[in-house]
Amino acid sequence: MFPIAWAVVKIENKDIWSWFLKNLMVDLEITDGGGWAFMSDQQKGLIPALAELMPHAEHRMCARHIYANWSRNFKGERLQKQFWQIAKSTNMADFRLAKQGLLQLTKDGFDALFHTEAKH
User: Fold this and answer.
1) 117 DSSP 8-state letter
2) Confidence (pTM)
3) How would you class 49 by CB atoms within 10 Å of its CB: exposed for 0-12, middle for 13-18, buried for 19 or more?
4) Same domain, residue pair 67 and 101
5) What is the pLDDT of residue 13?
């Protein structure tokens, strides 16, 4: 995994991400995104822009960045361990069980973490 393009912009939103992705698609001759994977930390507007322009691209979110953002509001060793148990789940049964564990610890933390579907 390595970065292949970047841009300096004043704000992050769907329009800016669409502009960036359209330029990337032209430069790299990408059509519908098939065979490509994008890694992000929940940047504003990226999910809808990717879904619209590259519906077949994979979109993964970086757990380390998500944890850094989430842990600003939800601190403590137990929450940290529970977050990583969720992130490192290797099957759906373990994932669901770990999610339930977080929900039992903090509903607010659970809601904040899962405001975006886990499939991304």
Assistant:
1) -
2) 0.66
3) buried
4) yes
5) 94
Containing structural domain, residue 88: 63-113
- Cβ neighbors of 82 (< 8 A, separation 6 or more) are 98, 101, 102, 105
In this structure, the answer to whether residues 51 and 76 fall within a common structural domain is no
How far is residue 75's CA from residue 90's CA, in Å, rounded to a whole number? 25
55 and 67 inside one domain: no
In a domain, 2, yes or no: no
Q: Residue 106 corresponds to which tokens in the numbers above?
A: 């903090």
Residues 71 and 94 in one domain: yes
Q: Domain count of the chain?
A: 2
State the sign of the Cα–Cα–Cα–Cα dihedral 66, 68, 8, 45. positive
What residue has token string 């879904």? 51
Length of the chain, please? Answer: 120
Rounded to an integer, what distance in angstroms lies between the CA atom of residue 87 and that of residue 72?
A: 17
Residue where the block lists tokens 């060793």: 77
The per-residue pLDDT for range 61-110, each reduced to its tens digit, is 889 988 998 999 999 999 999 999 999 999 999 999 999 999 999 999 99
